[in-house]
Amino acid sequence: MATTLRRTVPTHLLYFFVLGDVLGAGVYVLIGDIAAQSGGAVWVPLLTALVLACLTAGSYAELATRFPRAGGSAHYVTRALGPAAGAFIGFCMLAAGVVSVGALARGFASDYLAELITVPTAAVVVLFLSALALLNIRGVKESLGANVVATAVEVGGLLLVIGLGTWVLVRGDGEPRRLLELGTAEHGAVGATLAGAVLAYYSFVGFETSVNLAEEVRDPRRAYPRALFGALLTAGLVYVLLGAVAGAVVPTEILAESSGPLLEVVRAAGGVPERLFAVIALVAVANGALLTGIMASRLAYGMARDGLLPGGLARLLPHRRTPWVAVLATTALSLLLALTGEIAALAETLVLLLLVVFTAVNVAVLLLRREPDGTGAFRVPTVVPWLGLASCLFLFTRIDGAVWLRGLILLGLGLVVGGAQLVHAGRTRGSGTARSDAAGAPNPRQEG
What we know:
By secondary structure, this protein is mainly α.
């Protein structure tokens, strides 16, 4: 029976995986919220958030090239801090992925789809998640091939908004001076930048899922850093341009109050049907769910192989060598969440869970540098993980109390998983010592 994943993913598919995961549905709604926090200069907090995201991404790039394993964050933390900490972080990452897929499935069945067709929410959720699971089981190369098409549509829609906004400015209907308006009644320039950057940071979340594909990437030591930073910089450029045209074309107060800020740019330009953006948004949601589902299944597989989850989750489909049990298990949990929860309740805890993971990963890269490395892995300057750690601690202070209350429940479950792993490890060591003592003890019958 095969016990390792097949290395079939080239650099360009990994690049599109990261880009598709970062350019998620959040950008379609967050720009208005950022404008409310920062003012017309929306591009400034977006650029700040890109820098913050790249800090933690540097730690991931070093660890993924040094330890290209499907367990990702859980595997790194296990090596640095032990199996109990690894089980806790793996649970946080897995919970975030499962919750995210459930929220995206619910989002796919909401107002965007209603613009095109009316179908019962439960039916849409079941069909949507079933289709994603089948594509995931068929193979990662096929899944990433679909991601290339979806990402192209997604990026094309965002570039269309940038082009329309540019056209509005060229014809003289915009107000470029708003791009220098940084600050609100509640915050000065620095406070507004930081408040907006916290929201904008959410738009860059998704890059961390790609480490779970490192075991399936051809030559990860060369491919992974190129794909990761290339995709983050591409997404950052798109976001900054979107923020610039939105801030210059749409008055700040209208942008801040809109639930569809990019549609405000389309309306200002004229000539493009709004249903087109419903389709693009659906593609973005579906693509995000597919990529997050791949991450969750590979993480569950990697943790099971490392002994952090039940071993059955590590079973592979014989010919395709995809983790079919892990795919079905994570999909079933996402389906349960999607059928019983609301989008807001499912989505608001993601950031807290991921910040816990990011904090541990930045600590892990510093600790694992004590081990000798003869692999020639990618290495970031030592200051980068320290700054990444500081950025996570800062973002913790910006999380709302209600989110902490919900998140602590999941974190408590993660601690239970970590504690169970600690007990199991202690029993294993104890039984090993007992067997060793028994092997070394004299045999009474031989002495007689």
